[in-house]
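Lab notebook, bench 4. The sequencing result for the construct came back, and we need a structural model before the next group meeting so we can plan mutations. Quick request posted to the team channel:

Model the 3D structure of this chain.
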Amino acid sequence: MTHLIKVKNMLNILIIGVNPGGKGGVSTVIGVQLAAMGCMCNLYHLASTKGESKIQKIIAVFISIPKCIWLLSTKRIDLVHIHGSMKGSFFRKSIFLAICKLFRKKVVYHMHSPAIEHYFSHRPTWKLGLAKWIFNRYDAIIALGEHWKQVLTSVAGTHTIIYSVFNAVGKHKLPSSNKSDKFTLFAIGEVGHRKGTYDILKIAKKLINCKDIEFRIAGGGDDFDKLKQICTEEGLDNMVTWLGWVEPEVRDQEMVNADVFFLPAYHEGMPMAILEGMCADLPILSTPVGGIPDCVIEGKTGFLVQPGDIDGFVDRILNLKDNPQLLVSLGKASGERAVTVFSPEQFAENIMNVYKKVLNS
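Done. Here's the predicted structure in token form:
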């Protein structure tokens, strides 16, 4: 539980979500919010999730309940901002929604799910009805861009108030590059099908005769060992490097050493990893899914290829490799977009506007 700067006559905001500084994009977003809005509101942060297993997450919720009640009872909270996703996260967070409503507080839900449509097309009718009912108990929903605002409107109903707010990334000092002679594509995140990691191996297989191309993959997950095994079986160990989960300092070093940030994802919200790649002045090679088209301008800051189009990615990689001037221009435009459209200051202003609208409604 974190209490940042307390100033009289400022809004008192309770933020419920994962701890900043942990794994995943939501943790990064909360960290940016705490840093960017500490001078605009009195912020209280309540960690609602600890551990990886479902049991650990459920236990963490129940441990957090008395803390939540204490904060609502003693800190004159004006509004509660809950960060979460779909699946179990959404229903676990509804416990905090119920508690906050008992205290007559305004509550905003910040939806970070990368696959809302998938969730609503694979659940029984009763569960979908329950989810829609919970959506409408919130005073507002924050979506990661216009695409997700439209999706949430279609699944939650037109009665739900939804605002579009882009994620943000803080521009920070990066380490000096110690780049190798190879053309390097860097990927980071929970490895698996959703992030397109299996496709990276298929793409590497197509490029196996290009000895000056390498793929460096940071992150872990349930599929990590399986992917490493496939990599070895396909003879790709000299072309693909598995870094596992890395600290921010290592991530930044990998970014500045890379030529391209690579994310051939099938489902995404608004990936913080792409914003971090932009912040490192990297061209982005990704897919037009979720909020990614809001981040990447085709042909100006990077390129978007349809998910699963292995040959399309191969062509783009070879094109980028053979055009160093294009790499430089894309990277420069990417970095400029990061510090204008996706700055923490802009994010903080957008969130404050949501708070004001909700409190005045």
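The longest strand covers residues 12-17.
Will bring this to the meeting.
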